[in-house]
Design brief:
It is a single chain. The chain has helices at residues 15-23, 46-61, 91-107, 123-136, 152-158, 171-180, 219-222, 237-260, and strands at 27-32, 66-68, 112-117, 141-146. The protein is α/β, with parallel strands linked by helices. The protein has a single domain, classed as Rossmann fold (3-Layer(aba) Sandwich). Strands 2-1-3-4 form a four-stranded parallel β-sheet, with helices on both faces. Strand 3 (112-117), helix 4 (123-136) and strand 4 (141-146) form a beta-alpha-beta unit. It is globular and about 65 Å long. The termini are far apart. The model has no long low-confidence stretch (mean pLDDT 95). Bound molecules: zinc ion. Zinc ion is lined by residues 38, 46-47, 119, 168, 173.
Amino acid sequence: MNPAEPKPLLETMTWPEARRAALANRVVLLPVGAIEQHGPHLPVDVDNRIVTWLCDEAARRRPDLVMSVPPIHYGFNTHNMGFPGTVSVEVEHFVNYVADVCRSFVKQGHKRVILINGHGSNAMPCALVARKIVNEHDDALAAAINHWNLARDLAAKIRETPVGGMAHACEYETSWYLHLAPGQVYMDKAVADVLQKRSEQIWVDLMAGDGPVAFIDDWSRVSNGSGVEGDPATATAEKGRLYAEEEIKNLLSFCAEFQAMTVPPRRNYTARGTDPNPYHDA
Ligand SMILES: [Zn+2]
């Protein structure tokens, strides 16, 4: 390979190459996943596989713009510990660990970090980590994306599952897996399931937003045992390919904007600061 060509993945770089990646202001894409039950038809690595592929493929297509780094494999997952094959990290540990990983890239000279999250329960802690990084640094920005949000418009056009029930090991996630690794999906074991409805105000839907009440109970209490939330039988590899392409396109477009985003200095308008403000005498 031509040594002048930027490599897509950090793990294959030497340290001089990693330094050049930071000097070139390449946006760091950090995949954040989970090892978690995904029904009787999908392997437990669904979230990791999708986000790692997404980040790696984005970097393969635009190595001048982004760099993919090794993933955070384990997530915040206490609600699924009743199902075999699930691993959970306490939320405080998760936030501190992921923030340390992000800080490392900033210390190495990167100015933009994006957490690409693949697991619903990581969403809030990932957003929190991104905010911590922004709060702590004057010249570095971090953001968090739940990857499914990059395909919301497309989902509204192609989904077959009614709104309110496409949440886990569902039409969407199964389609993704059929696109990436069809040989590992047991479609004959793909069963439709919905969590027991306990209120008109509570539902979870990856693609259409959740209900007004934030309430996640232990899944072993509300699932009828499959671990699925949705209808994986309607999944196809073609839907997965469409989702993958849509998400790559929207991700790269955001990365270009994020890289170019200006970072003005912070101001202190309080009685302790000296920055002028036209409203001081209002
Ligand atoms: Zn998942």
